[in-house]
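Why run this: before we spend reagent on co-expression, it is cheaper to look at a predicted model of the complex and decide which construct boundaries make sense. The entries below are exactly what would go into the expression plan.
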Amino acid sequence: KNEVEQSPQNLTAQEGEFITINCSYSVGISALHWLQQHPGGGIVSLFMLSSGKKKHGRLIATINIQEKHSSLHITASHPRDSAVYICEAGTASKLTFGTGTRLQVTL
Amino acid sequence: NAGVTQTPKFQVLKTGQSMTLQCAQDMNHEYMSWYRQDPGMGLRLIHYSVGAGITDQGEVPNGYNVSRSTTEDFPLRLLSAAPSQTSVYFCASSASNLRGDTIYFGEGSWLTVV
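The model came back. Tokens follow.
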């Protein structure tokens, strides 16, 4: 069974700080997803990664398939980035999610 | 383009009652799935479908039933509700069951069983 672990579980940062959230998984996969869940509950897809790095605005996601590890970075964090960030690293039919990292960005 | 539509958003049930959570997508996606989200736990797969007429069990299928008679719809049925089924439920879809497709989620259904 694939285990997906995220760290840290909770993170508090001040506005403007650089943030890193980590995801490790135990089974070889071909692609990984990063998701964002806002306090209202809605979940949106941020990135799908199969190799290297992707950037979208202030968000950067990297993956190392050999080391079974991915990171999500937020540059110049802002209070509106406050959310739960979820890593997904499952097999073709069975998505497997981490428990999420709760991020709080304060002024 | 509505994406993934999930209803109801909130529901309170009495133990033993049955109900159906509706999920519909208008993106012609083959892959649809249902998850429950409980405090301190990641989203856990209940059932999934890789196309009309095909369904399979996920990690926590007991007490739930699904069907996929059309590409668009994937309802989740609670057969006899139990307090342990109090949770937030999410429906999701993607173009295929292959890795690399964007996952689209419904807005969630908050279910309380008393």
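Chain B has a mean pLDDT of 93. The CA atoms of residues 32 and 93 of chain B lie 4 Å apart. Bring this page to Monday's planning discussion.
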